[in-house]
Amino acid sequence: RLNTDNGVVGEKFPVEISQIPSLTTLELINIRNMRSLPVQIQELLALQSLTLSNIPLLTDIAPESLARLTM
């Protein structure tokens, strides 16, 4: 869970997140600078839950990055 990043996360979420293939839950909350999710998020094959909350600048979410996830 990443909550209130204090500016640590830049405009793009680090693509290195894809190096954690066993990650099942990802919560991104109160991240003020992030503008986009990386396409590499689709490489998280075990991901079951993705929460995006209070990320005011997030405008770029590539459809292919979320294609595998269900609502």
Task: Give your account of this protein's structure.
The protein is 6% helix and 23% strand. It is built from 1 helix and 5 strands. The chain has one helix spanning 63-66, and strands spanning 2-3, 25-29, 36-37, 49-53, 60-61. The strands form 2 sheets. Strands 1-2-4 form a 3-stranded parallel beta sheet, with no helix packed on it. A two-stranded parallel sheet has the order 3-5. The two termini are 19 Å apart. The mean pLDDT is 79.
Percentage beta strand: 15-25%
Q: Sketch the major β-sheet.
A: 3 strands, parallel
Mean pLDDT across the residues is 79
Secondary-structure content class: mainly beta
Query: Which strand order does the major sheet show?
Result: 1-2-4
Number of helices: 1
The parts where pLDDT drops under 50 for at least 5 residues are none
Q: How many strands appear in the DSSP assignment?
A: 5
Q: What is the C-alpha radius of gyration, as a whole number of Å?
A: 11 Å
Global outline: globular
Nutshell version of this structure?
With 71 residues, the protein is mainly beta. It has one helix and five strands, in the order E-E-E-E-E-H.
Secondary structure topology:
Blueprint: E1 2-3, E2 25-29, E3 36-37, E4 49-53, E5 60-61, H1 63-66
Parallel strand pairs: 1-2, 2-4, 3-5
